[in-house]
Amino acid sequence: EAQVTQNPRYLITVTGKKLTVTCSQNMNHEYMSWYRQDPGLGLRQIYYSMNVEVTDKGDVPEGYKVSRKEKRNFPLILESPSPNQTSLYFCASSFSGSGNTIYFGEGSWLTVV
Amino acid sequence: AQSVTQLDSHVSVSEGTPVLLRCNYSSSYSPSLFWYVQHPNKGLQLLLKYTSAATLVKGINGFEAEFKKSETSFHLTKPSAHMSDAAEYFCVVRGVSNAGNMLTFGGGTRLMVKP
Known about the structure:
Oligomer: heterodimer
Number of strands of chain A: 11
Largest sheet of chain A: 7 strands, mixed
Distance between the termini of chain A: 36 Å
Largest sheet of chain B: 6 strands, mixed
Radius of gyration of chain B: 14 Å
Largest interface: A-B, 26 and 30 residues
Structural class of chain B: mainly beta
Shape of chain A: globular
Distance between the termini of chain B: 42 Å
């Protein structure tokens, strides 16, 4: 089954404790990206990757890092989480052309206290 | 640069009546446009997409959208609402250029369906 898998789905962590949210897709997609969803703001793009070893900033990259060492994986790293990073995070993937469907993971609820 | 505006943050309709969710966009590219639906505590599911072919696009669950370049709009419609349509809907623009591959979401429209 074609899918985008994120882990963990739910996490409560403390300020400053590094964490990684993993994202994996099984569709051989070149393009992967991360979003955060906040009430009233819709989804905002954090980072995206056009292919292995190619990453770019989205609209809200501050406080986040990503890496793309393998085509199927695109982890999101919070080196020093802060409470304003409490949010619902989505990973997505697609083939690169603009008309290709974007597939989303189920979301990861992150709370930073 | 690109942007998406969903003109209504909340829409309430009665079951069996038409649905209209409005979306306006701007883009420096020749964008593709999508509508996604998000049910509570779920991920986003594609309803339909426009990719420079037919301007009237049919999607799943009876939804349609019409791309109007002159009005820079991509409104979502359904002739008859069902209770299961209650969800949040997102209009999305995707523009690909030498500068990047950007996805921009509208702020979302929450659809409520009354019995």
